[in-house]
UniProtKB/TrEMBL annotation, chain B:
InterPro entries: AsnC-type_HTH_dom, Dimeric_a/b-barrel, HTH-Siroheme_Decarb, Tscrpt_reg_AsnC-like, Tscrpt_reg_AsnC/Lrp_C, WH-like_DNA-bd_sf, WH_DNA-bd_sf. Keywords: DNA-binding, Transcription, Transcription regulation. It comes from Heliomicrobium undosum. PROSITE patterns: HTH_ASNC_2. Signal peptide: none annotated. Gene3D superfamilies: 3.30.70.920, Winged helix-like DNA-binding domain superfamily/Winged helix DNA-binding domain (1.10.10.10). GO terms for molecular function: sequence-specific DNA binding. This is AsnC family transcriptional regulator. Residues 7-63 form the HTH asnC-type domain.
Amino acid sequence: MKPFNDYINPVILELPPSGIRRFFDLVANTKGVISLGVGEPDFVTPWHVRESCFYALERGYTMYTSNFGTPELRKEITRFIQRSYGVDYEPLSEVLVTVGASEAVDLAMRTLLCPGDEVLVPEPSYVSYSPTVTMAGGVAVAVPTYVKDDFQLTVEALEKKVSPRTKMLILCYPNNPTGAIMTRPELEAIARFAEERDLIVLADEIYAELTYEGQHVCFAGLPGMRDRTVLINGLSKSHAMTGWRIGYVCGNKDFVAQMTKIHQYTILCAPIMGQMAALEALRNGDLEKSRMVNQYDQRRRFVVARFNQMGLTCFNPRGAFYAFPSITATGLSSDDFCEQLLAEEKVAVVPGTAFGASGEGFIRVSYASSMANLTAALDRIEAFVQRCKKRQAS
Amino acid sequence: MEAGAKKQILDILQEDCRRSPEQIALMLGLEAEAVKAAIAEMEDERLILKYPALINPEKLGDDTVTAMIDVKVVPQRDLGFDQVAERIYRYPEVRSVFLMSGGYDLSVVIEGRTMKEVALFVAQKLAVLEHVQSTATHFVLKRYKKDGVIYDEKAEDNRLQVSP
């Protein structure tokens, strides 16, 4: 037999492993770590949702569902999007329930991209977009965003990277890892750009419900954008339901029909237990959701203020559950900062570079953690930063 | 300070009253001085009554007995239930007293060292009170949850330590 790698598709072989993965291994080998490196809620799924799943199991709901997802859930999703963001979708033809928002991202890429098609990916960016573009045969083109612009995506930055091969633009706001959100006028400018360049917009709005200042603006709700937008959302972040793997995609029925073909041949359907739980969460979960959002908001203010107090300038994140402070004052690179912090103070945060080259000089700090953990971790980070500054001075 | 912000301060203190005014101020985006002033004001007006610790008495190995007593009362003209309630809540053995809707009038929580002690208190002090019509004593056998805290639940974080 030849070496194993000779059998592997070169596209996969050359795909770099996630920068998060490398850091994960480092953390796993250290004991007594307080981790602020987690990209999921620290809350357990609300009890009424878990309880509804037991009930579904008791009644024997253990079978396949429609490829699209149960009609009840699709209807509830369209109601949720209508009451939250004022956008209308037809439940039976314009909604597809997926295995997490991640599957929806992959489906969109595979359905829309032809070999060589370019996709504009604003950076710092969630780790999966570029690889899914590459795996679908497309070319991911990073569009850097900067702290001086509050990590806003500007048409100016897009103009520099757009080409005749550009087919798609990805928008992820509120943003992982920066916590940036986009306001309506800013998104309207992006919408005009998408129209002029005839681009499809993949709007990953998984953090939409975690918006603390201002109102989330659903991109599909902007004039003329509904049919141009593949809207992706899910219950993982809003309802603390990451492990249930329930996401969804809404869009023009012709898009949805094509995406559903891939979904039906590869996945068949999202798990029915998760779908039943999601139905309960959307129907009766607003109170628990707002309780969690309120907690995140308090922690957000606390964490950002502490970073600024200790001399790590922190951009004000208005959504998601991440702070993205600059660590340049320590004189360290993002990777060195995170590795030394882990070794010396046993606090795990993620280097900004895991989210693309433009994340250099930053760290991602998840505040989806208890106030007690956050307080202890920030005290340790402060001690570390003081030492770094002393070392720098001597 | 507006009522919404005061409520937020109270929510935080009810969760953990050891949070400092400085920390609360950061959490709510307020000035520390304003938080201190609001807390002092709420203490003055007895909106905040006390800052106790919530404990699990079973871990203490404490055999203190707790009973909940349903008390039926004949309300008094002009004074309603309040005067009878006062006659009851002045006893140090009485931990709480609530006026209830439904099948009885006052719910009285009593602590004592033994079941006998509690039973005697009910028989000798409570049941014989003028206007008390009847009592029914229920002893607490096991505590599962109090003030939103589940006794047997440990805060565990089972998430992956680093995830995207």
